[in-house]
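Case study: CYTH domain-containing protein.
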Amino acid sequence: MLGDPIPLEKEDKYVIAFFDPSVIPVPHYSAEITQQYLITPDPKEERRVRARGDRDGFTYYYTIKEEMSKGIRTEREEIIGEHEYRTLLSLRDSKLKTIRKQRISFFWNERYFEIDIFTAPKVHKGLVLMELERSGRRKKLILPPFLEMVRDVTGDKRYGNRSLASGIALT
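Here is what the predicted structure looks like once written out:
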């Protein structure tokens, strides 16, 4: 008997030059995200909790990710209540810092864009990353004219949120 399929996360990631959300000429969504990493017994596994807030309040998530190959991971995510979120925070990995970022999401040229503007840890304040979910083969990136790509960091572990939570400056 086959089980439920586990979703694969395939994404491309880019560093973007300074970004002002007010210049987006299409409808977009903005949320404040606070993310904490949890202690995990398996080094190939990543567990985190996330609080995502907007004008309607907060939604809380518990996520488990496991790397399959470069740029491809399994991801299991569930919405949890505030009480469970606070309980899981007791398992926080104290070696890692809290990630805080503003996430701007929008559609452009039939692609879904997520722009993260980091506010913490302090060493990464002002870092702007763009993520694009990939379905099937990697399409040629057509960047919206209001974004300036600095470089492609797809697969570069230094730009993963868990690595950024280490608080080590990017070189």
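For the exam, be able to explain this: The mean pLDDT is 89.
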